[in-house]
Here is the input.
Amino acid sequence: MADAAADESVHAALRQIGTLHDARHVIFDNDTRFMFASVFDGSWDTYIDDFAQTVVGARFDKVFSHSEGFPGVTDPGVKDWFVAHQEPAGVFVSAYPDLTVQQIYKDHRVEEAFEEVLDTAEFRAALDNPANAELLATPAFQKLLEEAAA
Here is the structure.
């Protein structure tokens, strides 16, 4: 149960930070090498600072403590350590390069709210009301309904 609570606190911290799209840890070469890769919004400096100030920083310390010379995520030299061990990605592709994490969160909230509206009797009645025929016939409303049905 403690692991579930710890995971929940990490997820809550990541949600609060609100810039992390994706992160992964990979152990390879017969368990002798480790890779951490992540995708985030904003500057790299802010990204590391944000994590160091949350429970995620403790996780970084736990994981990276097994790496040679890791000074600790709150150490003033940690950014230099990370930079010294970075390798650029040869290729990086994003399915949504222009969306921030905050925009994705908002899109999800709007979609959930819209789905709730679609499921109401009042909405179904509004679709059948002749007074709304002009609005319902607009390309924008038709597109909205098509997207909702997809």
Remarks:
- The mean pLDDT is 89.
- The CA atoms of residues 96 and 136 lie 30 Å apart.
